[in-house]
Each structure stands twice: as C-alpha cells, then as structure tokens.
C-alpha cells in the first residue's frame, strides 16, 4: 500500500509559478514511476506528465516547456514545478504511482487556481 499526499496548491496570478509536492509513504514508495494529472469540474482527468524511476520525463503538449517534474527518492517525494501559469491551468492536481503499467495509487489532490 502506498499513501500519496499532495501539497503546494493555491491561488496565483497568471504568469506566476507554483511548485506542487507529492509525498509518498509505504515500504516500496520509491520504487514506482509517478505521474501528475489534473481535473476540472465536468471534464475528464487529464494527463500532465510523468517521471520514471531513472528520472526520465515526458509531458502533455499543453504544459511542455512550462512544467517540470522531478523526484527526490531519498525523500520519497515527487515535484511538479509549474511556470508561466495561465487560467487554463486551473484544476485539481493529483499525483499517482504507476505499478506494472497502471496508476494504482492516487493522492487526494491539491487545488490550483490561476487568476487573470
């Protein structure tokens, strides 16, 4: 069992930055590839990006060049650095742990609101 807890959300003006954190706990928490997703009311959950165990990353086109995912395995924490935010980035952001190709464990989400 892996417990994921996101933090770092909040209100930011357009053009600003936020860094989200996802702290993982559990005996094998550092052994998973991790993903970030986001969701707005009435829409399906959207893939934002992911990071492998080795640290390789890939991103959705909508955030490429603005968002960066990193991980600190010693702290069992994954980060989502978000720059040049715009109102379309407003959403609840979730982290998830990938086990055998499936995102099995999910956090409770952290809300990000970007104002004009």
Please render the helix and strand layout as text.
Layout: E1 3-7, E2 10-13, E3 18-25, E4 33-39, E5 46-51, E6 57-59, E7 67-72, E8 77-82, E9 91-99, E10 102-106, E11 110-115
Parallel strand pairs: 2-11
Antiparallel strand pairs: 1-3, 3-8, 4-5, 4-9, 5-6, 7-8, 9-10, 9-11
List its traits:
single chain; globular; mainly beta; 116 residues; four-stranded antiparallel β-sheet; seven-stranded mixed β-sheet; 0% helix
Structural notes for this entry:
- This protein has 116 residues and is an all-beta fold.
- 0% of the residues lie in helices and 56% in strands.
- The chain has no helices and eleven strands.
- It has strands spanning 3-7, 10-13, 18-25, 33-39, 46-51, 57-59, 67-72, 77-82, 91-99, 102-106, 110-115.
- The strands form two sheets. Strands 2, 4, 5, 6, 9, 10 and 11 form a seven-stranded mixed beta sheet that branches.
- The N and C termini lie far apart (40 Å).
């Amino acid at each position: 069992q892996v417990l994921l807890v996101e933090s770092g959300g909040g209100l930011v003006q357009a053009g600003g930055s936020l860094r989200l954190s996802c702290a993982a706990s559990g005996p094998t928490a550092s052994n998973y590839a991790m993903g970030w997703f986001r969701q707005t009311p009435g829409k399906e959950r959207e893939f934002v990006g992911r990071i492998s165990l080795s640290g390789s990353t890939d991103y959705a086109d909508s955030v490429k060049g603005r968002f960066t995912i990193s991980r600190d395995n010693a702290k069992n924490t994954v980060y989502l650095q978000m720059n040049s935010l715009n109102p379309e980035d407003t959403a609840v952001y979730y982290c998830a742990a990938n086990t055998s190709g499936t995102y099995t464990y999910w956090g409770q989400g952290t809300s990000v609101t970007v104002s004009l």
